[in-house]
Design a protein that fits this description.
The complex is a heterodimer of chains A (111) and B (116). Chain A is mostly beta strands. Chain A has no helices and 11 strands. Helices cover 0% and strands 53% of the residues of chain A. Chain B is built from no helices and 11 strands. In chain B, the strands form 2 sheets. In chain B, strands 2, 4, 5, 6, 9, 10 and 11 form a 7-stranded mixed sheet that branches. A 4-stranded antiparallel sheet of chain B has the order 1-3-8-7, with no helix packed on it. Classes of the chains: A mainly beta (111), B mainly beta (116).
Chain lengths: 111, 116
Amino acid sequence: RKEVEQDPGPFNVPEGATVAFNCTYSNSASQSFFWYRQDCRKEPKLLMSVYSSGNEDGRFTAQLNRASQYISLLIRDSKLSDSATYLCVVNSPSNTGKLIFGQGTTLQVKP
Amino acid sequence: EAGVVQSPRYKIIEKKQPVAFWCNPISGHNTLYWYLQNLGQGPELLIRYENEEAVDDSQLPKDRFSAERLKGVDSTLKIQPAELGDSAVYLCASSGGGAGEFDEQFFGPGTRLTVL
């Protein structure tokens, strides 16, 4: 079993749609969770951290369910510019500073 | 402020040849990472440096890969000899803090290696 698992997609949605990505992680001792965004042939960039209480940044909402070891990212009112790959990232509890990346979920927003 | 700089951006070599990648982290960042990213996958950590010390190289295939960060600033990752399966993007990242605390990792644009 992979340490961080994501549905690779692709998710094809029209502009204005709401889309949700899910991610599961295997190590219950993980403490830090993030979503990174990676545009085609570019480097990953931090989109947002994920907090236990859930957090929102504009059209983006991240949720964490520790009991189910599940992380989600919701994008409301999708824009063409949201088209990218979204990487679910978890810290390694046995190796401080090490991040474990999921394979990414690809989103394509169409006009 | 300048980001993480990597060179070359692209490299094409024949198998069994050596290759080296260079990374200059963001000024003042004492933690430097080398990642490998295969097509359709997320980045995988190869090695992490705290200043000039390699604190995690457990995922580095040491029979053919080596890395150095002699003065605790820029770093070089080498493959010798390269194999077909080494074709991938090699990403360098840096962060500003020490262990035990999350510091955002900033990635460079990567070096896209093709081994023929």
